């Protein structure tokens, strides 16, 4: 697997129209997380740092899977009328290593939906290069009030 080359100019997500999220829980430890909606398509981003690297000095696969899981869950949540969705299966395929300092963009799309399940495909990219692809199944959790 060939590592992605690090961009020479530091990327500022805020200057590029991204909005930073302050979220509780595990994703805040991995983040900060950024989001943006372009023509109805939600995207989630993460600016990687040295703290996100593994001993081989590339971004840890666990962080990449975390970003994919969070992005697909958020897209499913919106499609399910903002009902909680939990991942019951997530298959990922690592295509290329990512260097610290890279801004990773997560995108997803729903391929099928039932009354209780959302089937999705997703991809993480750095600039125009896909670095991770995946498929997920999420379960819609019905709350007592809905």
Describe, in short, the structure shown.
The protein is α+β, with helices and mostly antiparallel strands.
Q: How are the SSEs placed, and which strands pair?
A:
Elements: E1 19-21, H1 26-30, E2 33-38, E3 41-47, H2 61-79, E4 85-94, E5 103-113, E6 117-126, E7 129-140
Antiparallel strand pairs: 1-2, 2-3, 3-5, 4-7, 5-6, 6-7
Number of strands: 7
Q: Note the gap between the termini.
A: 46 Å
- Give the biggest beta sheet: 7 strands, antiparallel
Count helical runs.
2
Q: What is Rg? A: 15 Å
Assigned CATH superfamily: Hotdog Thioesterase
Low-pLDDT segments, ≥5 res? none
Supply the CATH architecture.
Answer: Roll
Quote the beta fraction. Answer: 35-45%
Number of domains: 1
Describe the strand arrangement of the main beta sheet, using strand numbers: 1-2-3-5-6-7-4
- Quick check: average pLDDT? 91
What series of H and E elements makes up the topology? EHEEHEEEE
Structural class: alpha+beta
Helix % is 10-25%
Outline type? globular
Describe the structure.
The chain is α+β, with helices and mostly antiparallel strands and 146 residues long. The protein has one domain: Hotdog Thioesterase (Thiol Ester Dehydrase, Chain A, Roll). It is 16% helix and 40% strand. The chain has a seven-stranded antiparallel beta sheet. It is globular, with a radius of gyration of 15 Å. The model has no long low-confidence stretch (mean pLDDT 91).
Output the keywords.
146 residues; alpha+beta; Thiol Ester Dehydrase, Chain A; seven-stranded antiparallel beta sheet; 2 helices; 40% strand
